[in-house]
Amino acid sequence: MNLVFLGPPGSGKGTQAKKLAEKLGYVHLSTGDVLRKAVKDGTELGRKADGFMQAGELVPDELIIGMIEELVSAGALKNGFILDGFPRTIPQAESLDIMFEKYKIKLDKAVLLHVGDAEVTKRLLGRAEIEGRADDNAEVIKNRIEIYKKQTAPIEQFYRGQSILTEVKGEDTPENVFEALLKVAK
Ligand code: B4P
Fold it and tell me: Domain total for the chain?
């Protein structure tokens, strides 16, 4: 099954996608992870993306779409994958459809994890204490949630229109969310 994961920052996309991919033998491709590695390695993409990420802004569409196209054309998405953190804007979702058509890839489901603002803020502040990620502080978290509502949430309707949106309650224990996701991802 080929899936994209949607949901606000801190909804558990990365946490769950990684575990599910391991369990089901799927490929897990996280744009956040690819970008953080590019920043760490000091590549051109990383240098361009760094400031946006630190401010909690989205990295510009042309950069991120180019990055995904490179990965897809290199065969990064074998059948059975979870794309985590992409698409995050309508232009990204439209470009992905075009890429999938070009490379004959079928998207089976867009899985939306529902978690409220108070809970995601609590989780991300908790992660800040453990991992110290540059974009996990109160002000930047607030910005990321606002940006999600304005720029990313419209994608829910985009996939609902294609009849492939599946909604899952993300405000539960990681174990229960995993069980719920397993049912829709198999
Ligand atoms: P991401 O890496 O995608 O970061 P995220 O949205 O914060 O979610 P993440 O997957 O890491 O966290 P999760 O919810 O699993 O993106 C980072 C930045 O990269 C973006 O802000 C943007 O700048 C840039 N970017 C990435 N993709 C882009 C794109 N397509 N276009 C433009 N820019 C892009 O978990 C969060 C925390 O919650 C963890 O500490 C976890 O332990 C905890 N948690 C998870 N599930 C829980 C549960 N059920 N109960 C309690 N805690 C839980």
Answer: 1
